[in-house]
Amino acid sequence: MQKKIPTRKCVGCGQMKEKKELIRVIKTPEDEILLDTTGKANGRGAYICNSAECLQKALKNKGLERSLKSRIPDEVRMRLEKELG
After folding, report:
1. What is the Cα–Cα distance from 60 to 63, expressed in whole angstroms?
2. In this predicted model, what pLDDT tens digit does every residue of 27-55 receive, in sequence order?
């Protein structure tokens, strides 16, 4: 039997991709927005492709904000842009 590969939807482009191909952005229980490099951190997660283009789409269409149910602070937005740019 083949092992099921977990897939997630990018909040930027809307494509379904393997979980390990995507970057997880989380909102912690303390309401911090962080990049989750391990994919295992506690909190509400949103997934995004590893491209600046998808990040721009996710910020523009408010997909990231909708998924995390909160506003994205400017310093977090700049950090995401720097890491994905």
Report:
1. 8
2. 999 988 888 888 889 999 999 998 889 99
The span from the CA of 30 to the CA of 69, in Å, is 13
Can you identify the CATH homologous superfamily of domain 7-84? YlxR-like (3.30.1230.10)
Its pTM stands at 0.86
Sketch the domain layout of the chain as residue ranges: 7-84
Torsion sign across C-alpha atoms 60, 65, 67, 68: positive
Largest CA distance in the chain: 46
Name which of 51, 54, 34, 52 is nearest 43 in CA terms.
34
Q: What is the pLDDT of residues 65-83, one digit of tens each?
A: 999 999 988 888 888 888 8
Closest to 55 measured CA to CA, from 21, 23, 19: 23
